[in-house]
Write a structure and sequence with these properties.
The structure is a single chain. Helices cover 39% and strands 18% of the residues. The radius of gyration is 25 Å and the shape is globular. Helix 5 packs across helix 6 and helix 5 packs antiparallel against helix 8. It is built from eleven helices and twelve strands. A hairpin with a 2-residue loop joins strand 7 and strand 8. The chain has two domains: 142 residues, ATPase, nucleotide binding domain (Nucleotidyltransferase, domain 5, 2-Layer Sandwich); 140 residues, Nucleotidyltransferase, domain 5 (2-Layer Sandwich), CATH 3.30.420.40. The longest helix has 29 residues. By secondary structure, the chain is of the alpha/beta class. Keywords: Acyltransferase, Cytoplasm, Iron, Metal-binding, Transferase, tRNA processing. GO terms for molecular function: iron ion binding; peptidase activity; tRNA N(6)-L-threonylcarbamoyladenine synthase activity. Its EC number is 2.3.1.234.
Length: 372
């Protein structure tokens, strides 16, 4: 690692999914500006991200967010030393907009360009606080988001070993799907957390997929268990006795011909029952994630655990992991858990310090893995 000055300033772009973001970070730790244009309202009507819509919106939003980020930097472009952008993993069309814009800006200004792994960027969100000491290696990183769930051992900057990852749904994806099953809307993470807060503990227990002798995860079975609970509940409600038939002059009037069995729509879910399911689902997820992260830290002698990714904003996961862990827990502020460009700039700073610089030929890698 070469020593870069604390004044070394990077402008970074992030467009891996549905947030168009630009940030300016000094010294890899001090956030000068972190501008995010969210498309959440636009995609919520569809219950998920529409890739083509996301790509078009990135094109419209990139110039305003870059201008806003540079406006917060004294000296503007004259104070920028390098440009960075996410090149994977993510949606290919969305990634292309930010990557090509960043390369064009760097080339036009004659600045170094650094391509950044989105998963690595989430981890480096824990370095974005110059007022406190950063994590010291080795550390365990638990990355939990809409598209990814993994445990990694970090021995040094850029030195990663994947210990385990999801075998099916990512945890954020499971939150979204279960929220849809329960009629809670999109995005699922905040909706389920809010519903679970209204429940009482101990009302319902859902299964945990432990995958013994492994640090891997699985959430598809849990999602299916919730679906079965909902179906059983609706069938039970539909079997309740119907109201008595109407009466005429004191006696029941039989129908002239036997009626066709009515097509019964699923009974609406009782909000109190939904809260119990949301609570049980969240407890199952938090139990598995916390247990495996703490055990990984113990087995590998880690000095800390980093919680990263959009699901790191879940307050129940934060509190339970902190309660169980025997080492310090690093969790970014909620604004830095979801996709943003400040974390991209932080990761780029340490990649550049390690002598890594990207060429103009760098392309997007939608399925990029951590450590590449």
């Amino acid at each position: 690692m070469r020593d870069l000055p604390n004044t070394y300033t990077i402008l970074a772009l992030e467009t891996s999914c549905d947030e168009t973001a630009a940030a300016v970070v000094r010294g890899g730790r001090e956030v000068i500006a972190n501008i995010v244009a969210s498309q959440m309202d636009m995609h919520s009507r569809y219950g998920g991200i529409v890739p083509e819509v996301a790509s078009r919106q990135h094109i419209l939003s990139l110039t305003p967010v870059v201008e806003a980020a540079l406006a917060a930097l004294p000296g503007g472009w004259s104070a920028v030393d390098a440009v960075a952008a996410t090149h994977g993993p993510g949606l290919s069309g969305a990634l292309l907009t930010g990557l090509n814009a960043a390369k064009a800006l760097a080339w036009q200004r004659g600045l170094p360009f650094i391509g950044v792994n989105h998963l690595e960027a989430h981890i480096y969100a824990s370095w974005l606080d110059p007022r406190s000491a950063p994590p010291t290696f080795p550390v365990i990183a638990l990355v939990v988001s809409g598209g990814h769930t993994l445990l990694a051992l970090l021995r040094d900057h850029g030195d990663y070993t994947i210990l385990g990852q999801t075998r099916d749904d990512a945890v954020g994806e499971a939150f979204d799907k279960v929220a849809r099953i329960l009629g809670l809307g999109y995005p699922g993470g905040p909706a389920i957390q809010h519903a679970a807060e209204k429940a009482q503990a101990g009302g319902m227990v859902l299964p945990r997929a432990w995958l013994r002798e492994s640090f891997d995860f699985s959430f598809s079975g849990l999602k299916t268990a919730v679906l079965h609970k909902v179906q059983e509940h609706q069938e039970r409600e539909a079997r309740l006795p119907a109201k008595p038939a109407g009466k005429h002059k004191g006696r029941t009037v039989p129908p002239a011909t036997p009626p066709e069995p009515p097509k019964v729509a699923p009974a609406p879910l009782d909000p109190r029952w939904v809260a119990q399911v949301a609570y049980a689902f969240q407890e199952s997820v938090v139990d598995v994630l916390s247990t495996k992260a703490v055990e990984a830290a113990r087995q590998h002698g880690a000095s800390a655990i980093i919680l990263a990714g959009g699901v790191a904003a879940n307050t129940r996961l934060r509190s339970e992991l902190s309660r169980r862990a025997e080492v310090p827990i690093f969790v970014p502020p909620i604004a830095l858990c979801t996709d943003n460009a400040a974390m991209v700039a932080a990761a780029a700073f340490y990649r550049f310090a390690a002598g890594m610089q990207s060429g103009w030929e760098l392309d997007v890698t939608p399925n990029l893995r951590l450590g590449m």
